[in-house]
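ARCHIVE CARD
CATEGORY: sequence design from structure
SOURCE FIELD: tokenized fold
FIELD CONTENT:
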């Protein structure tokens, strides 16, 4: 599979959880901070919320889930004639990162919801390159040294 185009420096994302101390889902942006060698999540107001150093990332992959939109969930409970609303599904794309920070001894898995497959692929490949990860099938991992 050929590598996609490089990711833009900043992309819209929704933080889904996984970083110690940050339990709420929130809208914002992911930014590649190459000067400090880290991936930064900022909230909708531009305030830096959390970051993951490139060197702390041990694995990364793109994941797709088929989910039912909230409107379809409500509609399936309303009697009507036509296509059952329970069949309506949309694809949701996630960038999932496994990390282990040697400074804080904290490790875990976090995910960010991205807009579409093209953005997900470009962010995944760009991040894997910046973090020095190697490809293993559909995932990227840090080789043990």
């Amino acid at each position: 599979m050929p590598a996609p185009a490089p990711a833009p420096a900043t992309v819209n994302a929704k933080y889904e959880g996984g970083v110690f101390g940050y339990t709420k889902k929130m809208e914002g942006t992911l930014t590649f901070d190459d000067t400090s060698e880290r991936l930064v999540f900022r909230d909708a107001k531009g305030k830096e919320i959390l970051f993951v150093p490139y060197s702390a990332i041990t694995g990364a992959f793109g994941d797709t889930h088929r989910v039912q939109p909230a409107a379809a969930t409500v509609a399936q409970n309303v009697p009507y004639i036509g296509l059952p609303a329970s069949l309506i599904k949309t694809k949701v794309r996630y960038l999932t990162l496994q990390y282990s920070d040697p400074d804080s001894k904290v490790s875990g898995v976090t995910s960010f919801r991205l807009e579409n497959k093209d953005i997900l692929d470009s962010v995944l490949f760009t991040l894997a390159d910046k973090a020095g990860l190697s490809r293993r099938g559909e995932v990227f991992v840090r080789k043990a040294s």
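CARD ANNOTATION: Residues 16 and 25 are 5 Å apart (CA to CA). The beta strands are 10-17, 26-33, 38-43, 48-53, 57-67, 90-101, 106-114, 134-136, 139-141.
SHELF: design records, drawer C
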